[in-house]
Amino acid sequence: MIVGLPDHMRQRSAVVVLTGAGISADSGLQTFRANDGLWENHRIEDVASPAGFASDPQLVHRFYNGRRKQLLSGDVRPNPAHYALAEFETEWPGDYLLVTQNIDNLHEWAGSRKLVHMHGELLKKRCVFCGDVTPVDTDLSVRSWCDRCNAKGGLRPHVVWFGETPMEMDTIDGALRGCGLFVAIGTSGSVYPAAGFVSVANSVGAYTVELNLEPSAQESAFQERNYGPAAELVPEFFARVKG
Length: 243
Ligand code: BV8
Known about the structure:
Layout: H1 7-10, E1 15-19, H2 22-25, E2 38-39, E3 42-43, H3 44-47, H4 50-55, H5 57-71, H6 80-91, E4 96-100, H7 106-110, E5 115-117, E6 120-127, E7 133-135, E8 155-159, H8 169-177, E9 181-185, H9 197-203, E10 207-212, E11 224-227, H10 230-242
Parallel strand pairs: 1-4, 1-9, 4-5, 9-10, 10-11
Antiparallel strand pairs: 2-3, 6-7, 6-8
This protein binds ligand BV8.
């Protein structure tokens, strides 16, 4: 039972779900805050940034090539949390939107379709010269060239770096302002604007829930908080919502 959700909204409430790296942790993908947010002794904020790419593009390509290789290794697959969200999407009669900060493809792999990758996608590349966005499942480097404009050295991961504008913010903002239930899953609530979504949901009277391994930086803004592994919490919680 969702305590706090008014009866008349119970079966038709619009639901917005936000996920972060924690939902993929049970699939074997490392979170950002593990290792204190460092990678090869670099602050991730420095690697995942336009300045980082400008100063050392090969280091940044190495960062993403390694994550892409792991994602495609065959050792990583969706976990029960991803599948529970995909199932909920098909069964919920009200509006539904899944916003993920993750750049892996585990949500769509599990069957999610009403999905926005606000920080982009690891399995897509973009040409900085012509803007062409296409799938990628191999390494990128400064020697890669664009199949559309043939420019060399301009291919980058199609992801949103620190200091860049997240994707589909109008869609996200519209869904947040119309929702009756907002659920944040596996996110430390340390990166904006995603960390501020709970405040928008609260401002429109939505019921707000945090499902995480431990209290996030936004813990006090949520009306309900459940702590534990997402692979356990998420199926249980969304079964309650449907029930
Ligand atoms: C923007 C893509 C303007 C690349 C990423 C000062 C104050 C406020 C804001 C700022 C500021 N200075 C700068 C900013 C803005 C900045 C920002 O927020 N910086 C932070 C460091 C302070 N933000 C930006 O630059 C953004 N752009 O603001 O543009 C704008 C704003 C609005 C509208 C228009 C324009 C762009 C940010 C995007 C950066 N790109 N990723 C890539 O993936 O490599 S961010 C990246 O880090 C992730 O995408 C993710 O968003 C973030 C990490 O967060 P989480 O996903 O939460 O992961 P984390 O490891 O932190 O936490 C995991 C959680 O899971 C933990 O709580 C853990 O306990 C839990 N967990 C672990 N295991 C499990 C689990 N939970 C459940 N089960 C488990 N098994």
